[in-house]
Amino acid sequence: MDEAVARKLRVLADAAKYDASCASSGAPKRSAGRDGIGSTDKVGICHSYTPDGRCVSLLKVLLTNYCLFDCVYCVNRRSSNVQRARFSVNEIVDLTIAFYKRNYIEGLFLSSGIIRSPDYTMEQLVLVAKTLRQERGYRGYIHLKTIPEASPWLIEQAGLWADRLSVNLELPTDEGLARLAPEKTATTIRSAMGQMRERIAQGRAEGRSFSPAGQSTQLIVGADGASDEAILQTSAGLYESYDLRRVYYSAFSPIPDSSAVLPSRSPPLQRENRLYQADWLLRHYGFAVDEIASGGEGGMLDLDVDPKLAWALKNRHRFPVDVNLADREMLLRVPGLGKRAVDKIVATRRHARLGLKDLTRLTGTLKRARPFLIADDHHPGRSLDALDLRPRLVEAEAQMSLF
Amino acid sequence: MGSPAAVRRPAARRVVLGEGADLDGFRRAVRALVAEGVAPEDVSWNAGGQGGLFGEAPEAPGQAPPLSLPRQLAGRITEVVPHRDPERYGLLYRAIWRVLRGERDLLEIASDPLVHRLDLLARSVRRDIHKMHAYLRFRKVVGGPPDGPEVFAAWFEPDHFILEQAAPFFAERFRSMLWSIVTPVGSALWDGEELRFGPPGCRSDVPGEDGFEAGWTGYYESIFNPARTNPKLMRSHMAKKYWHNLPEAAAIPNLVRSAGGRTAGMIGKEASVPAKRVPERALAAMLDQAPGSLEELNALIRSAGPLVPGATQAVVGEGPANASVVFVGEQPGDEEDLQGRPFVGPAGRLLERAMGEAGIERRDVYLTNAVKHFKFEQRGKRRIHSKPTAGEVSHYRWWLMRELELVEPKLVVALGGTAVLALTGKQVPITRARGPAVLLDGFQGFITVHPSYLLRLPDQDAKAAAYAQFVGDLEQVRQLGEAGRSAGPKG
Asked: Residue A206: which domain range?
């Protein structure tokens, strides 16, 4: 591999790592053509994991980290003194193909600092995707970052080549955005999201490929003063208004050349983790934002226990739940019972009554669920009201690792 | 004292199956055992023998009829057979036995100990296949143009006998490459056409390095964020047993060791003062990006390539840049696509004639289309026009609206349904909307039929009447355009 390209790759991967999104999922099933390479399936593959426990699925790089914008939280803001580099379109295309052929990656996740103008930058991003698809016969995954300040016709083109598009809102409140990202506005970002939402839906309805894996966004956690509840309200609104596949949460992390406005400190990883769990409850478990927030205090989630358990501890009157009788919605609210376990319970109890021993084969986290359940041979009795229930469960949780 | 009257049972059986995932052998054995009514507790299974189906059984294999099993069970068998656990065949046979003896829904009872055990085995096989797809690394053996095709090879050590199930993924993904995968239990070879399986190999059958591994490791090191170090989480996803075949894993110990110091360094460091001045001129120039003239816009459209498949070239608008009337059609047709000019086909000629009768000179107006590329279906040698979808019209709308902003006409004539959709955002029947209208962005508009509609009418009288009405519309257009009644484009 060319030495100069390898050096640039280091700089431009380093510049891209604060974007939490790594997913390569959601694309339709595709196989390589006769003269090409690349395939996709509904669920993507993580080809490696870095020592932060994060998945390496896509080649996540910037086209360039030169940038005219000056977003305070960003390592690549124009006033930062970091080392800069720029790939040519062909360099990034060749690199993607070479890595892909060796089975290092599922595809490309390309973003960029703003150079010359948002339109020029976006054109370059689109050109990379188009070259991969048209000239290299590449059918692997492509995620393109959309630059909301670019002209809308560039989004129209990006969606033809990309599997996923995303615009990062970054700050959960409009006020935070105005203060920390002077060149950006919430209106511009939302209008780009709206355009993508409409076009993705039309493409799906008309059987054409337009960003078939939908759109996603990212919110930075801990750079401004937004509470967890405010962040989750923003997420719920985004899911509702723009049909987003995912909202990613990225704990504000120390960067090599930080601004005086936002000094470096340890990233709030536990808080980020709780927000992901809460987000999961919003999308898959039928919880509303205010219910999740009620599990914590003052709009902040409980850092010691997961948000489902926190909600259950404050709503003990809704428990215990009988695994042999309760409906699916209520089973989903039992701490320690995930979606898959609930599906198994519902399927199994059509044929047999369930006792505790059976449940050990249906969920790996029965210990947490036990105080909230009635089974054939088990009733929690008064233990649900015991004052030490929370400390006991907190201790059990402390033995688990972050997901 | 005699022994209690023993139930008469068939003699105990010992079944010897081939090494690895012997699905065919297992199927034949199960058919024979079921046909004979041999209960699971009377069978001992020996996986990994020297082939030979029934070690001590006299009957010839392949005689017993196929069994009809619930699809879920058949699927579970295929999943579990590649597992390394020597008990797998016995467990599967117990499940088959119970299902055939009336427990048809057995596999749905996930709490049953046998079902649970089979679930765990199947999950472990699925996981093994998934990890092979994830962690296998190809190394280049030879080649690349102009010396012929590139050839790649990989060494992998799966936990179970999964090669035949895992390999088709690579054939689908790396179709134009030639590659082989070598494992301790077999090998797979893709020659560009066919996937073949062969004997086991060893690590030295595969090159010891690849020219991109240093670059890949550099990427791996750079994408890691030391402030988030969590090696335990990493190992839960990527167990240590895989590391020795992953080039990037060599970097892990050092990354973990240095992470604490790097993070403390970032947190401890004072905020820096920017070394560079604020690039005022670049910032001012940055915002001036929208095309400022029709030439610039048209250059953009031409370079973008079709947003609908198939066209030869973009057909952009034509006419005076300050025309007071703009006509918007649907999309270029066959002749327009070849010539690169709008309204030069049959419909364009008809429009020109009608304009002439209404007192409008073609050279005085601006002519364009809602969609700038020809979309068609090939039928033999003919390219048959195919109507753009609503989504495709939306793709092109931004360009159309920018075109109108630049021309600043007094009146925009929407010819036909697609133009109306593009200019109003709504599907409206022409018969109801015909006549003056307010369009998107406040442009004054006039809605009428597309001239191709007149060409398609089969009945001559109807055609003549429709043509007369069209000419009448164009006369109104002329008057509206001359009067300039509208207060400008932005209403």
From this structure: 3-214
